Amino acid sequence: MLKKANYYIILFTTTTLLVAGCQNYKATLVENNKAMPATFNGGTDTLTIATLPVKSFFADANLVTLIDSALLANPDMLTALQRVEAARANVRGAAARLLPQINATARAGVEKYGDYTQNGVGNYDTNFSNNINSDQKIPNPVPDYFLGFQSSWEVDLWGKLGATKKAAYLRFLASQSGQRLVVTSLAAEIAKAYYQLLALDTELRIIKKNTVLQEKALEIVKIQKLGGRATELAVQQFLAQLLRTRAMESLTRQQVKEAENELSFLTGKFGGTIPRDTSIMSAKLPDAVKVGIPSQLLLNRPDIQTAELELAAANADIQAARKAFLPSLTLTPYVGYNAFKAGLLFDPGSFTYGILGGLTAPIFNRNALKADLNRSIAESKIAVYNYQKNILAGYREVSNGLNAIENYGQYYELKQQELTSLTNALSVANDLYVVGRANYLEIITAQQSVLQAELDMANTRRDMFLSSINLYQAVGGGWR
Questions:
Q1: Same domain, 215 and 338
Q2: Does the keyword Translocase apply (predicted)?
Q3: What DSSP line would sit under 399-461, residue for residue?
């Protein structure tokens, strides 16, 4: 009867633990519901430039060499690689928790039992037994020596540890996508800095050319002053214009140096001259681009891939946090030699082994588990919003890039026509000035307009390259 009562007590206790643990276990997870549009600006291209490697997209060999150098030496790139290694180690650690933990153990201790304790009385009485020999007599205090192996293994009954491993693996994949994102961003950043440098080189040549022209104009007006055909005011106006242009040259030289230093920094160097032999005006623009359909961003863009994997990892965290409410089974086997006399430790009679199994369920520490679950759910929602944000940003960047390529192309053609008109106007102004039908202010204005138009042409050409680079980056190109 007593055994039957004990059976019902154990059954009731186990059922209570299971019910208490299962109360907070639900299978619902946070999901993304952001649908992608069908096309970009009404386009229907299916072949995307994201599949083009850097060497195919950029025609400048010097630029490709700079990008290759950066991938080997850039600090951000090296840091991203180490994040991948750290995530890989986390996966190995999570996988190891699914296996038994086996430890080699050497333990020594001593304990003095009181005379009025169960062990104290039992040990004292045992020493008077005729069934033991002298080696089995228990000393007081009692030493304890153990040499062997001990293990602890939490059996993954509900898949809690498996969910933790899955989360770690997904974050490892996310770190790889993050590393590819660094590659894409780094390639784009170097390309932008490179073409900015070419534009500055072109600006410098334009300024130098106009400096020579303005110096000649100043000499002419000085001669005219000596002949009484010009005034000191005209001389000072031409001189001021020349000084302004020379000041622009000094400023542009500084910008060139800063651009060179920026490229050296990105490639992991301390400085030096950046190899380049192409003017921004004659550099080859990327061929006509196709960007594919918006849904391809989900496959191509590393930031969207990273956000998607982080979302999946956060959902795995939710699964692990919910399964933490369920009872856990832990087995603790051991095997080795145990004795209360050091000289008998390796005696065959000291060999011992055993196993202990324990089923535990959270009761009073449920608030901590609830807090961990709520944190996991909140982080999963954050991952959803970040995923949606990256999708929206990707679509916006591609749309902006497509429009920029078209509009900057039209702008450049109009600027070419404007420069032709201004150059013709300057030539006419010079002819009229020689015959006295135009004043010096018209010459100065015409020269300034031509200079500004040429600089605008160089900057517009640079913006055309930057638009192509931004579009290449926006569709996720550069890391393959």
A1: no
A2: no
A3: HHHHHHHHHHHHHHHHHHHHHHHHHHHHHHHHHHHHTTSS-HHHHHHHHHHHHHHHHHHHHHH
- Residue 9 has a pLDDT of 53
- What is the rounded distance in angstroms from the CA atom of residue 310 to the CA atom of residue 148? 43
Global confidence as pTM: 0.79
For the chain, 480 residues long, the average pLDDT of each consecutive 10-residue run is 52 52 49 66 59 83 92 91 93 91 93 88 85 85 93 89 92 91 91 95 95 91 86 91 95 95 92 85 78 73 89 91 89 93 89 90 83 90 90 88 90 93 90 80 89 94 92 78
Give every CB contact of residue 441 below 8 A, 6+ residues apart in sequence.
237
> Both 133 and 243 in a single domain?
no
Residues 151 and 121 in one domain: yes
CB 87 within 8 A of CB 175: yes
Q: Are 188 and 472 in contact (CB under 8 A)?
A: yes
Check: CB of residue 153 under 8 Å from CB of residue 292.
no
Helical axes 61-73 vs 160-226, angle rounded to 10°:
140
Asked if 59 and 103 sit in the same domain, the reply is no
Length of the chain (residues): 480
Task: Quote the CA–CA distance of 164 and 318 in Å, as a whole number.
Answer: 9
pLDDT given for residue 27 in this prediction: 44
The pLDDT value recorded for residue 28 is 47
How many domains is the chain partitioned into structurally? 2
**Structural domain span for residue 126:** 99-155+327-360
Picking from 273, 110, 126, 259, the residue whose alpha carbon sits closest to that of residue 195 is 259
User: Which pLDDT does position 14 carry in this prediction?
Assistant: 54
- 480 belongs to a structural domain: no
Q: In 227-301, which ranges are continuous DSSP H helix? A: 232-266, 297-300
350 and 227 in a common domain: no
> How far, in whole angstroms, is CA 207 from its chain's centroid?
41
Centroid of chain to Cα 461: 31
Task: Verify that 452 and 438 share a domain, yes or no.
Answer: yes
Position 439 in a domain = yes
Q: What are phi and psi of 28, to 5 degrees?
A: -70, 140
Q: Do the beta carbons of residue 413 and residue 460 sit within 8 Å?
A: no
CA 92 to chain CA centroid, nearest Å: 21
Contacts of 11 (CB under 8 A, 6+ apart): none
Q: SS3 of 151, please?
A: strand
DSSP SS3 for 153:
strand
From CA 215, how far away is CA 193, in angstroms rounded?
A: 32
- pLDDT for the residue 128: 84
Determine the pLDDT at residue 3.
53
Angle of CA points 72, 78, 81, to nearest 5°: 110
Q: Is residue 367 part of a domain?
A: no
